[in-house]
User: Fold this.
Amino acid sequence: MPYDLLNRKAIAMRRPPSPCVIAAFLGLLIALPCCAEVSGQVVDNLGFKALPRPINYATPLSPAGSIKAVIVYGKDAPWTRKAAEAVQKAVQDWSGVKLELADDRTVTADETWLLSDAYRKTPLIVLGNAKDNRVVHALGTRFLAQSSRHWPGGDRYTIRSIFEPFVADVNYIAMEASTEAGLDAAAAKFAELLKTFPKDAAATIPRVRVLGCVKDQWGGPTDPWKPNKEWFPTLQGSVTDIAKHTKARPSPPATACPRRALATSPATQLAGGAATPARLRKPCWTSRR
Assistant:
């Protein structure tokens, strides 16, 4: 680059800034304290307060000025209706309040099996399991229920309060069982519990959680799985000893492919068949070790 051009660039760099640039810089300096003051006002004085919401784990069955609870049974499971009628009678004997009965098809939508809008603000007493009661299935979509025809199994049952499963200030009571014997026992246990609860105008059920049974006891962490006695000598040995004891067949080599072996076997050749060309063979996926 010529010397005179470098000299002109150096002179331009030493030239003072234009008045417009100076004015913009001064305006920014003046505005910064105002912005800081406004920002400080927003952080220090929000202008509103977050009010604490009361948390109520109890379930009022007949709250004043609100909707009474409904007992939900499975339409396709008649044994759940029998238990629902027993619960209805127990609640009426305890509080004088007669709750309505409804089947799960009425309370849920046919398209989704989820709770219909008409019952979203209704406290529910749900009986059965996810297979026999759609409301329990709806609770399962919120990870609030896991009962089925296999769990809790036998004549075991659970009775528990569910805190606000779908709408605020609306709690449920779930009586889950896999069988008729388990649900009948749950209804009988609930009737006993009602006699121990304090009475009020709203027929409030305090927070409850019960695991019960008739004869099929619940297992716990103190009841580990125990193998059969004839397995003990084998379990004390090595992996090879266990494999020999179970007479397990070893895995085929990684390169072995039964389909290819059949296509090229002597029996196939004697039967008049020809070896399958490589381009017509189906791929044989084998694990690589």
